[in-house]
Design a protein that fits this description.
Bound molecules: zinc ion
Helix content: 10-25%
Number of strands: 10
Structural class: alpha+beta
Order of helices and strands: EHEEEHEEHEEEE
Strand content: 25-35%
Shape: elongated
Amino acid sequence: MTTHIDERCRACGGRVLPVLWGMPDVEAMEAAGRGELIIGGCMSEDIEFRCECGATAYDVDDRRVRPFTLDDARHYIDEVRWQFAKTMPQWPHEYTVSDWRPELREMFLDFVRLIRTDGVVKPWPADSPKPRYHHTYLEIDGWDYWTMGDPVDDTELINRARVGDG
Ligand SMILES: [Zn+2]
């Protein structure tokens, strides 16, 4: 029960907590209220630890369980429009806006969470002694995907650039 103590989810910032299965009793509800455990509800019982948003989760064998996988991300990437950012031709990149496909908002947010939990933090510009940004980048099929780092629910835009174009 101590494996993930002090671990925080990189997507929601919340603690990774043990998941309680079955109907919670009063004691369990109070413990959940104090932030000591997560009420499992109807989620998969394979999950033993998770954060509030669910993007960081582990099964009973301590393996990461991703509610939204790389293949889900590929599906989303194929589904939406990517606009070339004309204002910054010196840094060729593309972006997609959540509002262009409001019906896909949940997938958009799941993709943002995946970028946060599974991406790597890199300085930008990479060769600068004083980088302006340290964003989290997730590489998929030759593209780096990133957001500007607002809370997940406030995020409206996902950027991408060909790996090596930075
Ligand atoms: Zn989370």
